[in-house]
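Notebook entry, cofactor series.
This is the third protein in the set we're modelling with a bound small molecule. For this one the ligand is flavin mononucleotide. I'm keeping the input format identical across the series so the outputs can be compared line by line later. Sequence and SMILES below, as received.
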Amino acid sequence: MFEELPVPVLVAPMAGGPTTPELVAAVAGAGGSGFLAAGYLTADALAKLIARTRELMDRPFGVNLFVPGPESGVDLSPYVRRIEEEARHYEVQPGDPRWEDDAYPAKVDLVVEQGIPFVSFTFGLPSASDVRRLHEAGSKVIVTVTTPEEAVQAAEVGADALCVQGSEAGGHRGLFADDPAHPAGGEVYGLLALVRLIGSAVDLPLIAAGGLVHGADVAAVLAAGADAAQLGTAFLRADEAGTQPAHRTALAEGGRVTAVTRAFSGRPARALVNRFLTEHSPYAPSAYPQVHHLTKPVRAAAHRAGDPEGVNLWGGQTYSIAPEGPASEIVARLAREARAAQERLTRRLG
Ligand SMILES: Cc1cc2nc3c(=O)[nH]c(=O)nc-3n(C[C@H](O)[C@H](O)[C@H](O)COP(=O)(O)O)c2cc1C
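Returned structure with ligand:
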């Protein structure tokens, strides 16, 4: 499916600002491709990003959608009280902890109308009828999976490829359902193990994601059977990324470990550890997107204040060795490093 790409590197959809049309176009211009992030956007805002991407280039690209889950019945009031204290600290009002569907149906209609070449889904499965509509529109359908069981379900609804997300990954885990009894929402698989297990369970092209930051990592997942590598954190400090200053600075400074937390959004996600994560993770309920809406004004105020201790510093486990600079240079370096890794293997194995 990605055979025609000169460099099998995809920039991950990173909702909330980091993945811009400029970033996708720069990666595509350097021989890769990527996904616009539709999460948190209205259909109109997404339409503008698609139009801008098409102004910048005429190469194929993707759009990523958050599949809405059921409304959690958990009592949010104890967590609301904690976030009220945070809000006082940053002198804002907490957000309304409402459930909503992220304008999902309207955004599915939009990507069908627009004939987007690659449409990926995370947090769940698209319906079989939406998969059919996308196929009729000429789109390839990709589903993010974090376990072999999810991979089998995605194959059953007619996915054309899977994005296999290892536990190293930055940002939200793509789990179909967040198990509140589990700190990470469900079984945790490292990327190589998951590519191997899923490759034995289903016969679909695989995109590997999670902790890939060097061309040798790209070569490793291709050697393990993946068709392409999807990198998020490796592009967070790219010139074209829309990453906010407090986030960029924390990534550049290093020195923090990462952890999976529901504290910011109510769904397990990997972030650099900061004060907010440390204080609230043990109490954070499984309630997405209610917790996302609740904490949003606090995170926005912390961003305005340039305070990294109050924002969701999404990042994968290898963030401290992620580069900065123009995205085209990052892609060119990944390609050089992948070829060097291949030559090393050839020398070693013949
Ligand atoms: C800041 C950030 C935002 C993300 N937003 C999304 C998103 O909107 N949709 C999605 O499918 N994955 C999202 N992800 C996860 C990526 O698709 C991918 O799985 C992850 O970046 C891979 O791990 P890495 O960050 O170590 O490269 C996000 C990751 C990061 C770091």
